[in-house]
Write a structure and sequence with these properties.
6 strands, two-stranded antiparallel sheet, PROP1-like_PPR_dom, PROP1-like PPR domain-containing protein, mainly alpha, two-stranded parallel sheet
């Protein structure tokens, strides 16, 4: 930037005219200032902007564009340079040499009709106009086939100039239908051959009406039928219409059509297009248009400004730097607009050193000190919290004779606010008000944040009142207040600052009320939240239910389920329970381990007329599962199946599979599985694993094998549990080849564990494949797994049942040497093996050892002992065991009585056996 002033040309002609230029001061309440765009230039955005004083604008004569002089003579928007720019700046048409005309800019803009800015806007002719295009309005034609227009008779013999003059005056009127009708008459009477001016006028009408299809047809007609040469004036007329309406896509369409027809644009074309693209922030079209302009060696100052503004606004700073390079490369003579946009681009990027150099170069180029430039720099320094330099700039204003304006003070307030300096921000804030200016919402927001952090509650209250006096929405003020206190984690101070009309607004407005209550709940101020809800004055039952539901869920999510209970117990009671609230409370009570209250709510729903949905069933099922009431969970699932409109989701389906497995409901598992297959549910990895793990005992081995292969085919890797389940399935089915494949796959992925080895050992043991069983035990030990108690139990059971008692004793000895303590399964195996052999003394020793170890016999132990005593002929001891079981709190099962009855029969005690059989039937076994 040091060489900036050397590489850029200065428009010295501006200096001679600048004293004759004035512009009305603009007042902005935002940190960004928009200057309305003109025909040849773009909407100029510099942040921040202020009042521009003592500058008169040399504008594109839009009044000329509304007359036919320009169009009929081939001029108009087409004859002007593209730097027709912004109303805030001075531009000149140095290459045209035409006389400038002065007019009231705002008078012209007040006459512009408001139109839709929809890019797909396609207005068509009114029905009456369509008719008039087909046949000329008979009321306009007299009996001599002439046209009565202001006492002038026009007929087929009228000259082309006369017809064009009438068309021009009609176009200036308010009735577009007459214009279209007369144009139709001119076509019928051969007045359009090579009549470019007439077509330009009718294109202006069509553009004003937004009839783009009609305009396109008219261009084709004038080129192909009327022999008119297409020039930039034709397309500029339509581009100008798009510019006024803000129709970016249609403006780009006409430009591309212009290029496709080999028509070369002029400077005004690029100025209008770039201004239009700036309005719509259309980067792609702007880049294409600027590239085309540079290739054609046109010089449109406002086009560069528009492109630079677009890039800066969209934070495309690297591309913005390239445009600055183009300014140097293309030897652009910078006008005031260019300088200010350039200054803003550097400030937005935080390159304040370069921005200072731009300001210096701007002064050296003959531009007097400008408040906009200083405000831009002050804002730039404020954004990076460099208030020392911002303060220097502020002090420099008096030296250069520039009076600080409203924007200056606002920028200083924002800068000191970012620097967290409450005293300085307050000083400029008070000075702003003393000078008669009103702080904008951003200033008030800054002061409110500083006062929350550094001031007292009374300062906060005063600022809130000021914000309300400025007309700010009370809901917005409340949001700012809550955000400021939440940021500092001082939300507990809100109740003391929320007073007067703002608090009344909260009580009357349900949106603001819900915002405040949610803030209280989030910060564990449940009593304050409930107080607001009790004092509220709005009534909306549906909204209130949704709010209470949201509060309950929020309390649970924030880790305060006890607050959810408070909200629920204090909410208004209703005869019609809200399903969502009750469902959430069942979940909350389950979280609090309060099973009684959770079940009470479910039973209340069950007895009401409310139909439960899928989510409620899911919550209730999980509630029963958590408290171990699996049978009740199954009954809930049965009730759900009766409601045919309930479609369980993936999570509920997996819960159902696990519950049915734990309850050993094989039929339910099989039915659910085939329903899943029939429904065509998309299965993920977890669903495959869950189905295989839960349905292993409910499905045929072939179906399980197919499902497992399908899982692998879809690229899902089974987990360790699923591998072990399939090992058990294949082992019990004696499909050892498949079992070894599964085991190898699990080992390959590092998913084989001790249970995997135990499962394989047990499978070999059941099949009496002692060689592979022993080999697997060695591999287990070799691969770093110590031989587990389960593995020893499997080997004991296998060798014992095969009668290989020597190996049985060896395994038993190795078990004792390994340090593992025998469990119920170990003792039950020993009792069963010794009992089968009739070794009653060994059975007695095992029983004594079992009791000495502190492990009381379980149901399986008693059943095994009864069987052993029966084999040994000790029937009385077997009967005594049944009595002992009951004393120990163990209820005999079907196997217990079956073993006892078999023992009685084997010992010829048939009468006693019959009595026990009748007893079994009586108790329902």
């Amino acid at each position: 930037m040091a060489s900036l002033k050397l590489s850029l040309y200065v428009d010295n002609s501006w200096e001679s005219n600048k004293l004759n230029c004035t512009v009305k001061a603009l007042n902005f309440t935002d940190s960004k200032c928009w200057g309305p765009s003109f025909l040849g230039g773009g909407a100029f955005v510099v942040s921040p902007f202020c009042n521009l004083k003592n500058i008169r604008v040399s504008r594109l004569e839009t009044e000329e564009l509304e007359t036919s002089d320009l169009s009929l003579n081939g001029d108009g928007v087409d004859g002007f340079e593209g730097n027709l720019g912004n109303e805030c700046f001075v531009t000149e048409r140095t290459n045209l040499g035409r006389e400038k005309r002065k007019f009231n800019v705002w008078k012209r803009f007040r006459r512009v009709k408001r139109v839709s800015r929809d890019s797909n806007y396609r207005s068509s002719f009114r029905e009456k106009d369509r008719k008039s295009m087909i046949g000329f309005d008979e009321n306009v034609i007299d009996s001599q086939n002439g046209v009565d227009f202001h006492a002038e008779n026009v007929g087929p013999d009228s000259s082309l100039e006369q017809c064009n003059e009438i068309l021009k005056q009609l176009e200036r009127g308010d009735d577009d239908g007459k214009v279209l009708s007369f144009f139709r008459w001119m076509r019928k009477n051969g007045k359009l051959k090579r009549n470019v001016n007439a077509y330009n006028l009718i294109l202006r009408v069509l553009g004003r009406r937004g009839d783009w299809n009609g305009a396109e047809s008219m261009i084709k007609e004038m080129n192909l039928e009327s022999g008119c040469e297409l020039t930039y004036q034709v397309f500029n007329t339509l581009i100008y219409a798009c510019h006024k309406k803000g129709l970016v896509e249609f403006g780009a369409k006409w430009f591309h059509m212009m290029l496709e027809n080999g028509v070369q644009p002029n400077v005004a074309t690029f100025g209008m297009l770039m201004a239009l693209y700036q309005k719509g922030w259309n980067v792609e079209e702007a880049e294409f248009t600027l590239s085309k302009m540079r290739n054609l060696k046109f010089m449109c100052q406002s086009a560069y400004s528009s492109m630079l503004t677009i890039y800066t606004r969209m934070r495309l700073y690297d591309k913005a730097d390239k445009i600055i390079g183009f300014l140097r490369e293309d030897d652009v003579i910078l006008n005031l607009e260019n300088w200010l946009v350039l200054l803003n681009a550097y400030c937005q990027q935080g390159k304040l050193l370069e921005a200072e150099q731009v300001l210096a170069s701007m002064k050296q180029s003959g531009f007097s000190p400008n408040i906009v430039a200083y405000n831009t720099l002050i804002t730039g320094y404020g954004k990076i919290s460099n208030m020392r330099d911002a303060q220097c700039l502020f002090a420099d204003l008096k030296r250069v004779g520039v009076v600080p304006d409203e924007t200056t003070y606002r920028s200083m307030i924002e800068g000191w606010g970012r620097a967290d300096n409450y005293e300085e921000a307050r000083r400029y804030y008070e000075e702003l008000k003393r000078l008669g200016y009103k702080p904008n919402l951003s200033n008030l927001y800054t002061m409110l944040n500083l006062q929350v952090k550094h001031g007292d509650e009374e300062d906060v209250v005063r600022t809130i009142e000021e914000m309300m006096h400025t007309g700010s929405e009370k809901s917005t003020i409340l949001g700012i207040l809550l955000q400021a206190y939440e940021k500092l984690e001082h939300i507990h101070k809100v109740p003391s600052t929320l007073r007067g009309s703002l608090y009344d607004h909260v009580l009357r407005n349900q949106i603001s009320c819900s915002s405040l209550v949610m803030a209280y709940v989030k910060n564990n101020m449940i009593d304050d939240a409930l107080k607001v809800l009790q004092e509220k004055q709005w009534k909306d039952g549906l909204f209130e239910d949704n709010l209470y539901h949201l509060l309950i869920c929020s309390c649970k999510d924030f880790g305060h389920p006890e607050n959810a209970v408070k909200v629920f117990t204090r909410m208004p009671k209703s005869n019609n329970p809200n399903l969502h609230i009750i469902c959430s409370m069942i979940d909350v009570y389950s979280t609090n381990n309060d099973f009684v209250e959770a079940e009470k709510l479910y039973l209340m729903l069950k007895n009401s007329n409310v139909k439960l949905d899928m989510i409620t069933f899911s919550v209730v099922v999980r509630m029963y599962v958590k408290f171990g009431a699996l049978e009740e969970a199954c009954s809930v699932l049965d009730a759900m199946e009766k409601q045919k409109n309930i479609v369980p989701d993936t999570y509920l389906l997996r819960d159902m599979l696990r519950i049915y497995q734990r309850c050993d409901k094989k039929d339910k598992l099989a039915d659910l599985y085939y329903k899943l297959v029939k429904r065509g549910v998309v299965w993920d990895q977890e669903m495959y694993s869950c189905v295989i793990n839960c349905c292993a005992r409910a499905l045929p081995v072939d179906e399980l094998s197919r499902l497992f292969d399908e899982m692998l085919k879809h690229g899902f890797l089974p987990n360790t549990v699923t591998f072990n389940v399939m090992l058990d399935v294949y082992g019990k089915s004696r499909l050892f080849k498949r079992a070894r494949e599964v085991f190898s796959m699990a080992k390959k992925h590092g998913l084989a564990d001790a249970i995997s080895y135990n499962t394989l050992i047990a499978a070999y043991g059941r099949s009496k494949d002692f060689k592979n069983m022993s080999s697997t035990v060695k591999k287990m030990h070799f691969n770093g797994f110590s031989v587990s108690l389960e593995a020893y139990n499997c080997m004991l059971d296998a060798y014992g049942k095969e009668g290989q008692m020597e190996k049985f004793r060896n395994i038993l000895e190795r078990l004792k040497e390994s340090g593992h303590s025998s469990d119920h399964y170990t003792y039950n195996i020993m009792i069963n093996i010794y009992g089968e052999l009739g070794w009653i003394e060994e059975v007695a020793d095992v029983l004594a050892e079992l009791k000495e170890s502190g492990i009381a016999p379980d149901l399986c132990s008693y059943n095994t002992l009864i069987k052993a005593y029966g084999i040994a002929g000790m029937v009385e001891s077997a009967v005594d065991l049944v009595k002992e079981m009951r004393k120990s709190g163990i209820e005999p099962d079907r196997i217990t009585y079956a073993n006892l009855i078999n023992a009685l029969r084997k010992n010829d005690m048939f009468l006693e056996a019959v009595k026990w059989s009748l007893w079994m039937k009586q108790i329902g076994l």
